User: Which sequence fits this backbone?
C-alpha cells in the first residue's frame, strides 16, 4: 500500500517550475516551495507560520494578495517587490471549502525579468516571421505573375531583362505608377543566379524617415529607446546572397541616399549602435516613377547615387502605349477575380472596345482595381457600358468616344447610313452649342438654307 500523498506534498510542490505560496483564509503561511525561495530570495523558515499582513508590515514584501482573494473569492494578479530586491508577478487563486467559503489561497509566483525576456524574444521572432512571410508571398507568386507581353517594345524589354538578370548588376526600373515595375523586379530575380535565395521588397515611400535606417541597417540591443533587447537585422542583412528591391527609390531621404551609396559600393553594413562592419552580398534593384535626372538638378537626389544605380535601365511604357495588351489584361484579371470570388462575369464587346480606348492613367494597377471592383459589386453575368463607374463614364474624352461609337455602328449599316448618322450627330452638337441656325451655318461655313434643310431632314427641328 503506497504512502499517503500528504507525505509527499512538499516534494510535489517542489516539482513545479513556478513559485508556490499557500496561505489559509486568515493569511497564515502554510506552504512555500523551493522555486519560491529561488525567485524571491526569501527563506521558508522565515515565512512558514507567519501571517502575510505581518510580513507586509515588516517590509518582507510590499504587497500581500491573500486578503484580496479571500475578500472577493476571485483570482487576483499583482506585482510584488521583496526585501531582497526581487520583482515577481503574483497570481492568487481561491480554494473553497464545502460551504463555498475561501479556505486557502494558492499563489503562483513568476519572475518578471524572465517574463520580459520571453516577451522580447516572442516579439523578435514575430518580426522575423513577418519578414519571411513577405518573402514567401513573393515565392508563391513565382509562376502566377500578371505578365502579359504582346507589345513589340515590351517583348524587347523582356529580352533585355533576361540578359541583364544573369549579370548580377544593379538595375534601375523606370515607369509611371502602376505599370508593373514590381513584377519586372520579381522577374529579374527569377531569371538571375540568385533565384533560390531571398527576395525582399521595401517601399521607400511608406516607411517614416525616422525608421528607415533601422529597417535597412538593423540595430543592436538597446541602440535606442524602444529598441528590442535582442537587436534586429535589417533588410540588407536579411537579403544577403539574394536580391533587395528598393521601390520608390526617388522618395529616399538625402541622408539615407549617402548611406545607401556606401552599401552599393562596399557591400558592407553596420547596424545602428554597433561598431562592427558586416560584409553582405546583395543584388540591388531600384524603381521609381520620378524623373531622377530632374531630381538631381533640383538637389533632391544625389547624382553619384543616380549614376551608381543606372548601370542597367529598364524603362516601362505606360499601358496606353501598349494597346495590344489591354484586352489580354482584361481577360487575365476577369479570370483571376472570377476564380477568387467564384463568379462568372464577362464584359460585353462594347465595354472592351471602350476600355481599349481609355488612357489608363493608373495603368495596370488601375485596371486591376477596376475589374476587381466590378466583379465584387455586380451580380449580372455581362457587364455593359452603363455598369462602368461614373469616374470613367464622366471622363470628357470617354464621353466623346461613346458618342462617336454610337454614331459609327457599322453592324448592318451601309457607308451612306454611317455618314448620315455622323452628320446628324455633328448638327445636333452644333445647334446645342450655337443656339441658332444662322450661327451654325456660319460656324460650319455652309449656307443657312442647307443647314435648315438638313436639320429638318434629321428631325432635329420641326
Assistant:
Amino acid at each position: 500500500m503506497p504512502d499517503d500523498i500528504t507525505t509527499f506534498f512538499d516534494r510535489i510542490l517542489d516539482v513545479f517550475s513556478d513559485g508556490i505560496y499557500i496561505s489559509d483564509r486568515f493569511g497564515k503561511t502554510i506552504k512555500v516551495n523551493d522555486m519560491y525561495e529561488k525567485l524571491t530570495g526569501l527563506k521558508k523558515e522565515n515565512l512558514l507560520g507567519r501571517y502575510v499582513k505581518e510580513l507586509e508590515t515588516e517590509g518582507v514584501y510590499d504587497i500581500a494578495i491573500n486578503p484580496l482573494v479571500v475578500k472577493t473569492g476571485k483570482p487576483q494578479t499583482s506585482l510584488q517587490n521583496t526585501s531582497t530586491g526581487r520583482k515577481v508577478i503574483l497570481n492568487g487563486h481561491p480554494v473553497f471549502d464545502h460551504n463555498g467559503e475561501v479556505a486557502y489561497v494558492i499563489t503562483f509566483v513568476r519572475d518578471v525579468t524572465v517574463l520580459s525576456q520571453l516577451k522580447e524574444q516572442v516579439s523578435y521572432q514575430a518580426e522575423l516571421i513577418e519578414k519571411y512571410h513577405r518573402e514567401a508571398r513573393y515565392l508563391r507568386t513565382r509562376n502566377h505573375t500578371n505578365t502579359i507581353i504582346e507589345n513589340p517594345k515590351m517583348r524587347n524589354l523582356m529580352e533585355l531583362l533576361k540578359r541583364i538578370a544573369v549579370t548580377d548588376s544593379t538595375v534601375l526600373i523606370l515607369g509611371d505608377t502602376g505599370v508593373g515595375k514590381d513584377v519586372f523586379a520579381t522577374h529579374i530575380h527569377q531569371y538571375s543566379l540568385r533565384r533560390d535565395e531571398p527576395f525582399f521588397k521595401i517601399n521607400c515611400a511608406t516607411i517614416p524617415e525616422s525608421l528607415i535606417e533601422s529597417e535597412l541597417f538593423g540595430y543592436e540591443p538597446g541602440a535606442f529607446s524602444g529598441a528590442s533587447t535582442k537587436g534586429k537585422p535589417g533588410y540588407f542583412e536579411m537579403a544577403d546572397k539574394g536580391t533587395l528591391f528598393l521601390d520608390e527609390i526617388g522618395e529616399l531621404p538625402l541622408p539615407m541616399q549617402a548611406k545607401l551609396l556606401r552599401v552599393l559600393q562596399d557591400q558592407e553594413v553596420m547596424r545602428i549602435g554597433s561598431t562592427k562592419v558586416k560584409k553582405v552580398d546583395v543584388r540591388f534593384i531600384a524603381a521609381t516613377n520620378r524623373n531622377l535626372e530632374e531630381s538631381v538638378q533640383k538637389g533632391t537626389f544625389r547624382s553619384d547615387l543616380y549614376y551608381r544605380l543606372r548601370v542597367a535601365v529598364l524603362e516601362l511604357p505606360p499601358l496606353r502605349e501598349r494597346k495590344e495588351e489591354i484586352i489580354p489584361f482584361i481577360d487575365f484579371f476577369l479570370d483571376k477575380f472570377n476564380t477568387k470570388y467564384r463568379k462568372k462575369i464577362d464584359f460585353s464587346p462594347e465595354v472592351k472596345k471602350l476600355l481599349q480606348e481609355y488612357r489608363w492613367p493608373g495603368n495596370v494597377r488601375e485596371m486591376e482595381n477596376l475589374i476587381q471592383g466590378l466583379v465584387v459589386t455586380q451580380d449580372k453575368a455581362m457587364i455593359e457600358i452603363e455598369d462602368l463607374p461614373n469616374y470613367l463614364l464622366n471622363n470628357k474624352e470617354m464621353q466623346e468616344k461613346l458618342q462617336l461609337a454610337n454614331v459609327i455602328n457599322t453592324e448592318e449599316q451601309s457607308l451612306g447610313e454611317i455618314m448620315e448618322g455622323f452628320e446628324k450627330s455633328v448638327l445636333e452638337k452644333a445647334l446645342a452649342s450655337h443656339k441658332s441656325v444662322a450661327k451654325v451655318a456660319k460656324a460650319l461655313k455652309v449656307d443657312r438654307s442647307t443647314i435648315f434643310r438638313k436639320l429638318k431632314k434629321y428631325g432635329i427641328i420641326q
User: Anything to note?
Assistant: The longest helix spans residues 112-140. Residues 141-317 form a domain with the Rossmann fold fold (CATH 3.40.50.300). Residues 391 and 398 are 10 Å apart (CA to CA).
